[in-house]
């Protein structure tokens, strides 16, 4: 799963219609008996005026502002306002033209993109096909080390075929590749800036020169990142309402909550779940709930240890009190997940989604049956090492619940605490997974297609953290990714979902809505997971005239 880190940890996300959402993500009230109900909407109230500055809270400092390496919430939350992709994801989780005004597919293995004319980079130079070719090719260069490189696995060539035309040839049909050009793989940066910056690109020593509604002004490492309004932005409907946007980094959830309550920070995404009730009742601002394509999961990192036995994975799943976890980790706002990919990720065939999920078994909570499976597997007393971190309270809540569940059924679950940056490294550096068996993730889609999530369970995929391999799964995936008809592709994806639920390379936990906190003086922000790629800060402005 590209996974990054949010309230837990993840992939990068998007583009699903609101009608495809589950009880955790749909626009209706969705209280589940463990806490207050909530209503999901894609945006907050429109801004009524402009502001000179806004301060936004991030739960961690971005480790990069290089789009090719951005595989986590902090960097993408910043870059969404600075850089743009060939397609754009909207707050209601649909896709529309971005830096490409259209694309044609003359045959299953050829994609031709017509670029938007007269788009300027932040330094005033004009975007051309050369910039697109250079930007996309970086993902395929091993020297870049892009975690998005696997998205280009079927790309044979990327060529300029006109001043504003780029043609991509594929070695085999690949539906997901085109869809992923609405995410980091489709980001366009100035070719000249990439060449000039070299290894400093995307670091505090370098520059970022994209086409978005804000420009990078300053990165004070360890303190803040400041963006400035791009008054010459090509999309006149998204000229920023705010002149300056400053991101601050607060890793401690309690300190971050205090910053939001005091007004030191005007707002922030992914509100600490342990503070939801406090922030909602504080009277200093509002907590809003947005569309989400994510489900919290347990990703198996080592199939050579005890968790390589399906009986052990099933036993651990059956020993988890998901309702209790939702109450403690999500403030009661969520539902148990039936599959690794959330229902909210299914935009491909919304009319079929309910049927696909109805056919799946409900997650069982049966400690005695789990004990029997552990005995049958000969795993009693075996040690499992699970990584945890202070990065977000949800991580430790889930980790402690897994440890307790293991103790009940005879597994020795050891918790290894690592700092936030080391936790992030688990999802981009295979070496960081050495000695670990289990990690909490928040798996979500970058595309409107749930097939994208299941791509990350293919043999050899970068996001297949535990190197799980299943020949039947791979064969069905290849058929699905070559299927142009959305309804037929959805049926094949449902088969992948069934295999994943049966084999449990990822153990589903729960689904919950996306969250944002807005202080009293601001409004206009999108509320959902689209903030990873949509220029969300452009619509923020004054709540009062």
CATH superfamily of the domain at 96-196: Dipeptide-binding Protein, Domain 1
The overall pLDDT, averaged over residues, is 90
What's the total number of strands?
A: 23
Instruction: Write down the Rg.
Output: 22 Å
Q: What's the main sheet like?
A: 4 strands, mixed
> What's the assembly state of these chains?
single chain
Judging by the overall fold, what is the CATH architecture of the domain at 96-196?
Answer: Alpha-Beta Complex
The CATH topology of the domain at 96-196 is Dipeptide-binding Protein, domain 1
Unreliable stretches (pLDDT < 50, length at least 5) are 1-36
Query: What characteristic shape results from the CA principal axes?
Result: globular
What proportion strand? 15-25%
What's the end-to-end separation, in Å? 44 Å
CATH C-level label of the domain at 96-196 = Alpha Beta
What portion of residues is helical?
A: 25-40%
Q: Tell me the structural class.
A: alpha+beta
Strand order of the largest sheet: 1-12-11-10
Counting DSSP H or I runs of 4 or more residues, the number of helices is 15
